[in-house]
Amino acid sequence: MLLPFQVTKNITLLGSEFFNLYLVKGETYAVVEGGVSGITYPFLEQLKQLNVSPEVISHLVILHSHFDHMMVFPTLKGRYPWMKIVTSDLNRAVFTSERIVAKIFEADRKIALALKEEGTISDAPNLQPYGLLPLDIPVHEGSALDLGKGMKMKFLEIPGHSPDCIGAFLENEGLLFCSDGAGFYIPPNFFRPNYWYRLDDAERSLDKIKEIDPEILCRGHYGAAKGRETVRRHLHMGRQCIEDFKVFALEKINSGCSVEEIAQDVTVRFSKGFLELFPAEDNYRLWKLLVQRTLEHLGIEVEER
After folding, report:
1. Range of the domain at 208
2. Does 279 map to a domain?
3. Which end is more exposed in the chain, N or C (fewer Cβ atoms within 10 Å of the end residue's Cβ)?
């Protein structure tokens, strides 16, 4: 897919294949999803290609506070302070924690270096972890952001991947921005679970998205699924991969495997696509957490070795 890509008349996909940003056009503009700092300069060039001046962008929407969905925004906010940060009210605690902010910036720095090493980018902003981002407009279930000309985002809480994960539904477009709230998809047909917070919340969130029945599903990675039947199939696959992982984890534990052994197995099998940019120890830590969340849900207590 060549970027920029026109998802609808009023929604444009920018950023990169791995790290997506969406430009939403109403009377004013919003950017939904913030990627990693390494795609800041390509994103600004894409705006130039579209003849969109930063002066017309009024809102920056963070759908959850993981670093790979928000790190273009520190540069934008620094250069263009009129842009308002919109995110879950839960992120007040995130944005004011020096410890969490430092981890966010360090994780972003690692990915920027990895992107440079593979030649994907030539440069990235040198971000420093001070005053990460203000929370200008806090939102929660039922909140709305009206950009004018019928472009009204209605927010819904879809936790599971993270406690603060929110979606944004544009009813007139039949389009839902779901970030990582609908599972993790890698083309052409690979799904894996990503409930780092709570498995049962992830299931309920997927069910909530199914009830909306969007025609277009805009993810934070690997672009948008278009067409109601395609979206339904993707949501089904996202739900099925959770069920499959429950069975897998249970079988492994019953066969005598430790949490660490299961995590090592899935790290090798599931670290595909842009996850290959992450340090191996970071991928292992994430997959181990996924195994632990799964066993917690199943009511299985195990001792770590």
Report:
1. 5-241
2. no
3. C
pLDDT above 90 for 44: yes
Determine, yes or no, domain membership for 299: no
- Report cis status (omega within 30 of 0) of the bond before 4: yes
Helices (H), the chain: 40-49, 73-79, 91-95, 98-117, 199-212, 228-254, 259-270, 280-297
Question: Is the confidence at residue 304, as pLDDT, over 90?
Answer: no
Average pLDDT, integer, range 127-136 = 80
- 238 contacts 185 by C-beta, under 8 angstroms: yes
Domains: count for the chain? 1
Check if the beta carbon of residue 32 is closer than 8 Å to that of residue 151.
no
Q: Is 268 part of a structural domain of the chain?
A: no
| Mean pLDDT for the chain overall | 94
* pLDDT top residue among 166 and 132: 166
Distance CA 302, CA 101 (A): 32
Domain CATH for 195: 3.60.15.10
The dihedrals phi and psi of 126, each to the nearest 5 degrees, come to -90, 85
The DSSP code for 177 is: E
